[in-house]
TrEMBL record:
<protein>
    <recommendedName>
        <fullName>Glutamate decarboxylase</fullName>
        <ecNumber>4.1.1.15</ecNumber>
    </recommendedName>
</protein>
<dbReference type="GO" id="GO:0004058">
    <property type="term" value="F:aromatic-L-amino-acid decarboxylase activity"/>
</dbReference>
<keyword id="KW-0456">Lyase</keyword>
<dbReference type="GO" id="GO:0005829">
    <property type="term" value="C:cytosol"/>
</dbReference>
<comment type="similarity">
    <text>Belongs to the group II decarboxylase family.</text>
</comment>
<dbReference type="InterPro" id="IPR015424">
    <property type="entry name" value="PyrdxlP-dep_Trfase"/>
</dbReference>
<dbReference type="GO" id="GO:0030170">
    <property type="term" value="F:pyridoxal phosphate binding"/>
</dbReference>
<dbReference type="GO" id="GO:0006538">
    <property type="term" value="P:L-glutamate catabolic process"/>
</dbReference>
<dbReference type="InterPro" id="IPR010107">
    <property type="entry name" value="Glutamate_decarboxylase"/>
</dbReference>
<keyword id="KW-0663">Pyridoxal phosphate</keyword>
<dbReference type="InterPro" id="IPR015421">
    <property type="entry name" value="PyrdxlP-dep_Trfase_major"/>
</dbReference>
<dbReference type="Pfam" id="PF00282">
    <property type="entry name" value="Pyridoxal_deC"/>
</dbReference>
<feature type="modified residue" description="N6-(pyridoxal phosphate)lysine">
    <location>
        <position position="295"/>
    </location>
</feature>
<keyword id="KW-0210">Decarboxylase</keyword>
<dbReference type="GO" id="GO:0004351">
    <property type="term" value="F:glutamate decarboxylase activity"/>
</dbReference>
<dbReference type="InterPro" id="IPR002129">
    <property type="entry name" value="PyrdxlP-dep_de-COase"/>
</dbReference>
Length: 482
C-alpha cells in the first residue's frame, strides 16, 4: 500500500459493484491507494482518508487496507516506554473474541459477566488486605485514570458532606499529591473543581514521603494521593510514612485526612514480590486503592479497578440506580456502555496464573529490570536515579563529561533507529533541569532481549562518543508518555 499526491480530481468511485470504478481511476490527494494485488476488477483503486466512501467495498479489500495501515505501527515488544500489556496467550485471545460483544453496563443481559466483575474486585480487596473483603466495594473501569477519578470523587463527596453537616463552607476543596503524579490527577482537579496542591520532589526527596506535608494540608484537604510506582521513575511513595505524617497533623489540628493509593502499577506488583510492605488497607488511613488491569494485571488495554476499604467508604450519593434494558442496576462509573471482555480476561488471568503464577511473572520482570539497571550503572556515561527495586521500572541521568557532543535525546533517537523506544524527558516542576531516560520492563521482555538491548545501547553510546560536533537539535523532543 502506498500514498500518492496526484492532483487529479476525486471521482468518488469507492464501490464494488459494476456501476463504478474503471481503468481510469486516479489516486488523489488525501487518499489511500489499494495495492493492485488486492484490488478487484471494477472496484475503486483508492479510498478517501477523510470522507466515508459513497459505495461499499468487499470485506477482503477493506480488511487489507486497514491491516496494511496498522502494520506500520511500531513493534510493541521493543517499546520500553509503555506500561500497557501488549501480549496475551491464545486462550485469552479466543476468550476476547467470544466476549467482544458484551456490554459491561448491561448486567440484566450479562449477569454472569457482572458476577465475574464482582468476584475480581473482591479478589483484589482480599489481595490488598481489606479488613473484611466481602464488606468492601469496588468496580471495574476503562482504565486506572477513571478509577483514580472515582477515588477522588469519593474523597471530595465525603469531605463535602462532612463540611455541610458541620455547617462549614465547601467551596475550596484541595487535593495534596506529589509534583510527579500521573496526568489523570491533574485532569481530576481540573474537571471536578479541586485545587491541586503539589508537593515538589527533589534530589533529597525523590518521592512524596511526608516531608513538609503540614504545609499543604488544611481543613479543605479532601485527601492525599500516594503513588505506588511513580510514572516518571517507577519508585514507590512510602504510604506508611505518609500516613504517619498525617497522624501527627491530626494530633496537632484534629484534621482526619484520608489516603487514596494510586496503585496503577505497584498495586499488581507489591502483593506478589514485596508482600511484607505495608502500603494497602493494612495502613488504616488508606480508604481506596486503584490499579490498572491492563498494566501489571497482564490484560489487554481497557481495564482498571478501584476498591474501597468497606461499603460505607463509598458515599451513597455517588451511586446511581438506573433502569436499563429490562432491569434496575446500581452504577458509579464515569462511563456507561463499555466493554466487558477485559473483565473476563482479568478473571481468566487470576485463574490461569493464581498467586504463585503472578509472583513468578512479576519476579521475572523485576529480575530483568535489576539486570538492566546494573549494566547501565556500570557504564561511565550514566548515573541511576533509581534501580528498579520497586516496580520493574527505572531511570537514569547523564553524567557530566567535558566536551560531550550529545545528550539523552540524541541517545533516544539512536536507539529508535534500532527499533527500541526508550523515552528521554525532563523531570517535573522544580527539577526540570534534570533529564532522565526510563525503561519499563513488562511480561515478555526476556533476559535475552535485555542482553540484546544492552548491546545496542553500548553501540549507540560508542557512536555518539565518536562525534566531532554536536547532533542537530531542531527535532529533539521528549519521548515521554504517561
Amino acid at each position: 500500500m502506498s500514498e500518492t499526491h496526484s492532483t487529479t480530481e476525486n471521482n468518488n468511485s469507492h464501490c464494488c459493484d459494476n456501476t463504478c470504478g474503471n481503468a481510469d481511476d486516479r489516486v488523489v490527494p488525501d487518499s489511500v491507494e489499494i495495492n493492485p494485488l488486492f484490488a478487484r476488477p471494477k472496484e475503486a483503486q483508492a479510498f478517501s482518508k477523510f470522507t466515508i466512501p459513497q459505495k461499499s467495498s468487499l470485506p477482503e479489500t477493506a480488511y487489507q487496507v486497514v491491516h496494511d495501515e496498522a502494520m506500520l505501527d511500531g513493534n510493541a515488544r521493543l517499546n520500553l516506554a509503555t506500561f500497557v500489556s501488549t501480549w496475551m496467550d491464545d486462550h485469552a485471545n479466543r476468550l476476547y473474541m467470544e466476549a467482544a460483544d458484551k456490554n459491561m453496563i448491561d448486567k440484566d443481559e450479562y449477569p454472569k459477566t457482572a458476577e465475574v466483575e464482582s468476584r475480581c474486585w473482591h479478589m483484589l480487596a482480599d489481595l490488598w488486605h481489606a479488613p473484611d473483603p466481602m464488606n468492601a466495594i469496588g468496580t471495574s473501569t476503562i482504565g486506572s485514570s477513571e478509577a483514580c477519578m472515582l477515588g477522588g470523587l469519593a474523597l471530595k463527596r465525603r469531605w463535602k458532606e462532612a463540611r455541610e453537616k458541620a455547617d462549614l463552607p465547601t467551596d475550596h476543596p484541595n487535593l495534596v499529591m506529589s509534583s510527579a503524579v500521573q496526568v489523570c490527577w491533574e485532569k481530576f482537579c481540573n474537571y471536578f473543581d479541586v485545587e491541586p496542591r503539589y508537593v515538589p520532589i527533589s534530589e533529597d526527596h525523590k518521592v512524596l514521603d511526608g516531608h513538609d506535608l503540614d504545609k499543604y494540608v488544611d481543613e479543605n484537604t479532601i485527601g492525599v494521593v500516594a503513588i505506588m510506582g511513580v510514572t516518571y521513575t517507577g519508585m514507590y511513595e512510602p504510604v506508611e510514612q505518609i500516613s504517619e505524617a498525617l497522624d501527627r497533623i491530626e494530633e496537632r489540628t484534629g484534621l482526619d485526612v484520608r489516603i487514596h493509593v494510586d496503585g496503577a502499577s505497584g498495586g499488581m506488583i507489591a502483593p506478589f514480590i514485596q508482600p511484607d510492605l505495608a502500603w494497602d488497607f493494612r495502613v488504616k488511613r488508606v480508604y481506596s486503592i486503584s490499579t490498572s488491569g491492563h498494566k501489571y494485571g497482564l490484560v489487554y488495554p481497557g481495564l482498571g479497578w478501584v476498591v474501597w476499604r468497606e461499603t460505607a467508604d463509598l458515599p451513597e450519593s455517588l451511586i446511581f440506580k438506573v433502569s436499563y434494558l429490562g432491569g434496575e442496576m446500581p452504577t458509579f462509573a464515569l462511563n456507561f456502555s463499555r466493554p466487558g471482555a477485559q473483565v473476563l480476561l482479568q478473571y481468566y488471568m487470576f485463574l490461569r496464573l493464581g498467586f504463585d503464577g503472578y509472583r513468578r511473572v512479576q519476579q521475572t520482570s523485576h529480575d530483568v529490570a535489576k539486570y538492566l539497571s546494573g549494566e547501565i550503572e556500570q557504564m561511565d556515561d550514566f548515573t541511576l536515579w533509581n534501580d528498579g527495586s520497586d516496580i520493574p521500572v527505572f531511570a537514569w541521568m547523564l553524567n557530566d563529561k567535558p566536551d560531550r557532543k550529545w545528550n539523552l535525546y540524541d541517545l533516544q533517537d539512536r536507539l529508535r533507529m534500532k527499533g527500541w523506544l526508550v523515552p528521554a524527558y525532563p523531570m517535573p516542576v522544580d527539577l526540570t533541569q534534570v533529564t532522565v531516560q526510563r525503561i519499563v520492563v513488562r511480561n515478555g521482555f526476556s533476559h535475552d532481549m535485555a542482553e540484546a538491548f544492552i548491546k545496542d545501547l553500548k553501540s549507540c553510546v560508542k557512536y555518539l562518543d565518536g562525534l566531532r560536533s554536536p547532533m542537530p537539535s531542531e527535532a529533539r523532543a521528549s519521548g515521554f508518555h504517561h
